[in-house]
Amino acid sequence: MNSRNLPLFEQFSRKKLFDSPTPIQRLDRLERELETKVRIYVKRDDLMGLGGGGNKLRKLEFLLGDAISQGADTFITIGGLQSNHARLSAAAAAHTGMSCELVLTQVVPRDDEAYRRNGNVLLDEILGAKIHLLAGTENALDFAADRAKVLKREGRRSYLVGSGGSSPAGCLGYANCAVEILEQQREIEGGFTQIIAPNGSSGTHAGLAAGFASVGINPEKISSYAVLNPGKETQFSTHELAKATLALLAPTKSIDLDAIRVSDDQLGDGYGIPTSAMLEAVRTMARTQGLLLDPVYTGKAFAGVLAAVRSGAYKPGEAILFLMTGGLPGLFAYQPAFEEAS
Ligand SMILES: Cc1ncc(COP(=O)(O)O)c(C=O)c1O
Q: Which 3 state secondary structure label does DSSP give 159?
């Protein structure tokens, strides 16, 4: 980040949770394996020291900053049973000395022992969060709001965050990351022609888009693979969130819907449901580079990158950047899926 951009983010409360910038690395062995002249890079947002790391810490820096400035003592958030956002909220709250309550919903049709008890769920408990487990039919946000009222009667002050931490304040974390990438790509010959991310609750893509737009760059080079909702729906939600985030940073600037590029080619049968392309991508990345993707987000999105490279969608010599957003604990929750596919 250059000093010109600093004031853009310094106006917001922020709690430092990881060391930045996260590194950008080239996947040279994978390029050879794919026999491609496309230069494939990853931004290692999985390499963060707190709670196992991952993209949610970028959002949590701004959300916790806001919570602290409001004098909150309890951080409440919602998510699926194996939510990485929930795990990192628990870690960030512990690090900050706040209590954490997680309202988790069974939204994925997996009921084996590993899914119910291992991975993120195990870490949530170790990190000291209080877990409220709901059936998929219950409304987690309503439950969380009721819980905040109960805590208020007990004299506590809660800070409530919705799914994935993807509020405009949370998205500032990825707007900041966009500026970080612009700085880092000075070292990359020709710069990145594509920046690719997974898209769940849309905050990562939206934040990146808002960050680019805030410094006058069209965000069309950013694209994402939807892993939660269909492509059009995800494009609209990403656009809405990007506009709301941009309004915080640069209210006179705008983002076109066409500049928000989302594919649902890798969604398969739905959120958290493994695909054969995901299983292959996770193994290919692990066996060529020793890097670990996750089964729900980066595994599916990187399957999209592999398919695009193999089909010649990128030109020889182009440099593309894939955002490794973390989620490694999910591998342990999906152990049976990997075993079946071995
Ligand atoms: C590991 C990982 N990658 C990517 C995402 C998607 O980010 P977003 O919800 O901001 O679209 C998530 C969200 O939960 C995640 O946990």
A: strand
Does residue 163's CB lie within 6 angstroms of at least one atom of ligand 1?
Answer: no
Options 83, 167, 223, 237, the catalytic residue:
83
Which of the listed residues 45, 202, 237, 297 should we mutate to test ligand 1's pocket, taking the one with most ligand atoms within 8 A of CB? 297
Q: Are 332 and 119 in contact (CB under 8 A)?
A: yes
What's the whole-number mean pLDDT along residues 333-337? 97
Q: What is the pLDDT of residues 210-245, one digit of tens each?
A: 999 999 999 999 999 999 999 999 999 999 999 999
For ligand 1, the distance from its centroid to the CA atom of residue 227, given in whole angstroms, is 9
- Residue 34 Cα to ligand 1 middle (Å): 27
* pLDDT tier, 5 (very low <50, low <70, confident <90, very high otherwise): very low
Kindly tell me if the per-residue pLDDT of 60 is higher than 70: yes
- 215/184 same-domain check: yes
CA-CA distance, 145 to 142, in Å (whole number)?
A: 5
Asked if the structure places residue 1 within a domain, the reply is: no
Q: Are residues 14 and 33 in the same domain?
A: yes
Give the model's confidence band at 7: pLDDT under 50 very low, under 70 low, under 90 confident, else very high: low
* Same domain for 178 and 289: yes
- The verdict on 42 and 90 lying in the same domain is no
Q: Is 83 a catalytic residue?
A: yes
Residue 257: Cβ within 10 Å count: 12
What does the alpha-carbon distance between residue 318 and residue 310 come to, in Å, rounded to a whole number? 14
Provide the mean pLDDT of the chain. 96
Residue 153 CA, ligand 1 centroid: distance in Å: 34
Asked if pLDDT for residue 109 goes beyond 70, the answer is yes
Is residue 145 domain-shared with residue 82, that is, in the same domain?
yes
Q: Is 327 in the pocket of ligand 1 (CB under 6 A)?
A: yes
- How many domains is the chain partitioned into structurally? 2
Domain that holds residue 174: 6-53+167-340
